[in-house]
Each structure stands twice: as C-alpha cells, then as structure tokens.
Amino acid sequence: MRFSIVLIATGLVSAAVIQSSPTWFTTTGGRQQTAKEALRDSNDRRLNLDEEGETIRQRSALTEDVAARLCDGQLTLPEAVDAIEPLARAAPEWFHSVRLSYQGFSQVSPTATEREVITTYLLHKIEQRADQARERGDTSRATTISARRVELERRAEPSQPFPTRIQVGTH
Fold first, then answer.
1. Contact present, 124 and 146 (Cβ < 8 Å)
2. Segment 57-93, tens digit of pLDDT
3. Are 85 and 115 contacting, i.e. CB atoms less than 8 angstroms apart?
4. Residues whose CB is less than 8 angstroms from the CB of residue 115 and which lie 6 or more positions away in sequence, other chains included
5. Which of 26, 37, 91, 157 is 20 to 30 Å apart from 171, CA to CA?
6. CA quadruple 106, 108, 111, 117: dihedral positive or negative?
7. In angstroms, rounded to a whole number, what is the distance separating the alpha carbons of residues 131 and 83?
C-alpha cells in the first residue's frame, strides 16, 4: 500500500514538472536537447540518409550499366573491371560487404585481389541478367547472356575459380 502511494505521488510530481516546464526536452547521449535541436538533428539524419540513398542509387545504376555493356559485348572484362574499381575505392564499406559475401559462399578466396572480387561481382551481375530474361520468358536472351558469361569466364585469369551459378545477393 505504501509503495503504491509513493508510486502515485512520484507520477503526479513528474506530470506536474513536465506540465510546468517551459521547454520540452529529451535526454540523448547524456545531454538535454530542446525540441528545436531534436528537430534539427532529425533533419540532419534524414538528409544524411537521403544522400546515402542517392549514392546507392547512383552506384547501382553504374554497375547495372557496366554489366549491361559487358553482357552485350560493348566492354571487355578488363574494361568493365576498370569501370567498377573506382566504386570499390570510393565506397570501401560497400566493397567490403561484397567481398565478405563472396568469401562466405566460397566464391573468392580470402586472398583474392580487388580485381578478382570485382570480376566475380560482374559475372554475378551477368547471371542475374540471364535470370531476369528467363523470368520474362525470353529464353533466347537468357541463353545468349549465359553463353557470354561462359565466354568471359574462359577469358578470365585461370587462377580465379568461378562457379557455374553464384547464389549471393549483393547490391
């Protein structure tokens, strides 16, 4: 009973303090923050997320374009790798996740070079394009794309192990 009264009294005092406070505030990271500061911080986080989203969209568009041109024979494999290398350097966290994905599925060795990982990534992108053509019912295009992938694998460095199908979901 006594505990209930103390709990109710504490709740009433807290409510009175909150009601009488001229500034709404929260505690984040050990400091008090006004509503205006919290809104500004929230907007900053949103802008950062928007920038990250745009970066991801641009990277995806570039990798898809390179894969399409590689697939259609407009680029050689070394040219396509050269086109992707700057992305790997500009977004090391993205490239690290790509590397870890392929290592986890034994698609590349832990000692694989950046170019070997990019080559595997591009061959995976080509296989995705073949799968998309199959899903659309365009078996002729899927066969052409798969043949191109086999051709590219044969021209790649023999030290690189390439599976016939890559089952990794990377962006």
1. no
2. 998 999 999 999 999 999 999 999 999 999 999 999 9
3. yes
4. 81, 85
5. 157
6. negative
7. 23
CB atoms within 10 A of CB 118: 25
| CA gap 118, 77 in Å, rounded | 10
pTM above 0.70, yes or no: no
Rounded Cα distance between 62 and 154, Å, is: 25
Residue of 94, 98, 96, 82 lying closest to 57 (CA atoms): 94
Tell me what pLDDT residue 131 has: 94
Q: What is the DSSP string of the chain?
A: -HHHHHHHHHHHHHHHHHHH-SS-EEEETTEEEEHHHHHHHHHHHHHHHHHHHHHHHHHHHHHHHHHHHHHTTSS-HHHHHHHHHHHHHH-HHHHHHHHHHHHHTTSS-TT--HHHHHHHHHHHHHHHHHHHHHHTT-HHHHHHHHHHHHHHHHHS-TTS---SS------
* CB atoms near residue 116 (< 10 Å): 22
Looking up tokens 């374009």, which residue turns up?
65
Buried b (16+ CB within 10 A) or exposed e, 32-54: ebeeeeeeeeeeeeeeeeeeeee
